[in-house]
Amino acid sequence: MAGSLQGSAYFPSIEEKYGRPIAEWKGLIRSSPLTKHMELVSWLKAEHGLGHGHANALIAHTLAEDKAK
């Protein structure tokens, strides 16, 4: 799995369950003033109703993507 970023296997179910495309979630994450992984996870759970696994997958993938830039 070296070629794929962590968490992306969850993306189809995230889009289906929460009704927003992954690009929109990434935009929300990147526009947040929060920067720490668990702060962002807690924020997605509290403000947007995501489950822990889905929030964690989105954050991990987005932060890894940004780090790779």
Automatic annotation (TrEMBL):
<dbReference type="Pfam" id="PF14117">
    <property type="entry name" value="DUF4287"/>
</dbReference>
<protein>
    <submittedName>
        <fullName>DUF4287 domain-containing protein</fullName>
    </submittedName>
</protein>
<dbReference type="InterPro" id="IPR025629">
    <property type="entry name" value="DUF4287"/>
</dbReference>
